[in-house]
């Protein structure tokens, strides 16, 4: 069968092929990642939908490809060699969009757009199918229908698609600009002063860079510092690590942190919210998807643990480990990096004290954890040795006041320090 | 000198001109419609589509009566009263022309019969029977149409050498009739004359007759024409003609060999030429194309900001319905809409026996442009309806985009194909897929089923055919 680039998720419809994992003649299994795509949003691996043998590759590394584009031809394994063409042609289009919409939340432009509006960057394709009425309306509005994604059979553009496109354009046009981006500083010839080495920024690096600029310029940041006494957590960890290991899981500080953060978010829903700049609403999310910043050799990636509030410590341990591995192998799907409500950046494994993480917009808060160290602490009038871990909670000052943050970090510290053993027990 | 004022002046009252005038009037404009002949309707109504279809209908009756023997119905040979036939045809034409005149009056369109001449970009001088009139306008729409081309070498001033205009008057039935040009006009009028008793020879300079249509659609027409016509020759060049007594001597060149032949009549149907030479366009900013037609953009605007042009005068497919569509676009552009003649599907119908009709992409187009398409065909021998009236010599085909399954073109040959093609036009304009067509229920027993069966055949499950594998 012909393997085409599947829908990538919200707002993304193209990307550059970073690497291809297979070659002609390779056997592939269903869901096996076959290539890695760098898009504006992130880097994601693209799985193959069937078992079979790679018969032909239609793309090469570095190609810019679009959703629906032919990637490779796979000769299917024995069973059902000939899929009826009807099914084959429509299967890709009817795949449901990966949208999780909790009832009360309305997402606007500040969040990723929910409408499946796809903007084609190039206009060299043929005109899409559309009725004369739709074409007339488009012409009147000055819209090139080649930019509008048709939702009907054969990519046919109907009036609702034009409507969705127009409202998307409008939202885009009236969304508050992330300040006026200053012109980039003039390029400096560093070679004048000594030998240099030039290296192209990868798409991922550019993505991170753009994302950071956007968050930094758009969100007024404040970072609230505190220290947490980690001694109890380390004791719990010591007591239960063995049992976790038997289940194939490593009990690190991270699952404790996720668990404590969720407990805090349940008391401080504002820290789990987002701002809809267009509608002027605060979107309170009734779900807890926690992003975990993972350091990889390519750069920062933030996979998301879905519904962290519904998961046991054992599940959290396993999932964090899996996501981190996937991130390092660059096998995360776009979906696995979307929908976060709060992020944690843990530098404990590397060292360093307090730091000021940048909020991962459209989230409104992020926790930065430094390295824990044993320090003399006064407890009940006595000096004791305790493991102290520095915390930095950065937040979006537009909706979170300093007092909110102070109350929040106090509760967060308590959630760490009074961690219930029942929650750790398997 | 008194100058009348009007919002829009339309020159020519054919299917482009009167459509433009009426539409503009309906949109509240003050309109003047100038027509040089005493009757409205243009070529289409007076000496084109309508009279030729009337005569073809008469021919069809004769053919059907002749072929009814197999059904156990026997008629004696018909006697033809040409005068009565002409009067009948005339009555149809004048009824329609009167209808157009009435419609113009009801819309308060100011109809002026006379020859128009551009004094400058915004003034027309019209020579009427009552003298000269001057008309100033905001916008003029040129819709003067075309006339049958008559190369000088054939123009003997002898009435035995006809164009379609004279041929439609059926003054006589020449025993031996040569038709120069195997396009749709030659083939249609050839059918009429052959049925009325002429021995018809068609000569075509190109390698095939009815160029533009896919050859598989032309084949059934040729098969039948070869029976009713004496000959159809392709690759023939007509060098010159001369009067020889009551006949015409024609010099031909065929495969490098020259010969002379004698005919009692000749129909020259080698195409249609623009005729706006005496319109005074040199006094305006209007420019012409290399092929001698008025140059316009897709909004029907000429190079003169006050003047638009539509229909045969701008070239392209010279068909009445194309002119009518352009009339709508021109008026909409004048009234400030953003209309444009782009991605418009213009169907073509050839009223031969059987008829050929097609729209959108043809198989030849696809082949030439290298576009990958799927073609599915449904032969009418599998249609119960076609069998029921002994006309299984038909074929319906769809040209489909294999990627999106969109219908890109439709081609039909068969009795009444012209009445079937509109479904294809709607399908293409709506961006329908083959599945859309297959899923729409077509009534039984009708020829329209052949379209649905074609679409089904694309998916491999047409009820009445099996896809060869």
How would you sum up this structure, described in words?
The complex is a heterodimer of chains A (426) and B (469). Chain A has helices spanning 85-94, 132-141, 159-174, 203-218, 231-246, 253-267, 313-328, 402-417, 421-424; strands at residues 2-4, 14-20, 27-28, 33-38, 43-47, 52-57, 64-66, 70-76, 221-229, 273-276, 281-284, 290-292, 294-295, 300-301, 304-305, 342-346, 365-369, 373-379, 382-396. Chain A has 426 residues and is of the alpha+beta class. Chain A has three domains: 2-94, RNA polymerase II/Efflux pump adaptor protein, barrel-sandwich hybrid domain (OB fold (Dihydrolipoamide Acetyltransferase, E2P), Beta Barrel); 111-174, Dihydrolipoamide Transferase (Irregular), CATH 4.10.320.10; 206-424, 2-Layer Sandwich (Chloramphenicol Acetyltransferase), CATH 3.30.559.10. In chain A, helix 6 crosses helix 7 and helix 6 (253-267) packs across helix 8. The two termini of chain A are 46 Å apart. Chain B has three domains: 3-148 and 273-334, FAD/NAD(P)-binding domain, CATH 3.50.50; 152-270, FAD/NAD(P)-binding domain; 354-458, Enolase-like, domain 1, CATH 3.30.390.30. Helix content of chain B is 31%, strand content 27%. In chain B, strands 1, 2, 3, 4, 5, 6 and 17 form a seven-stranded mixed sheet that branches. Chain B has a five-stranded parallel sheet with strand order 8-15-9-10-11. In chain B, a hairpin with a 2-residue loop joins strand 13 and strand 14 (257-263). The radius of gyration of chain B is 24 Å and the shape is globular. The mean pLDDT of chain B is 95. Chains A and B meet through helix 1 and helix 2 of A and loops of B.
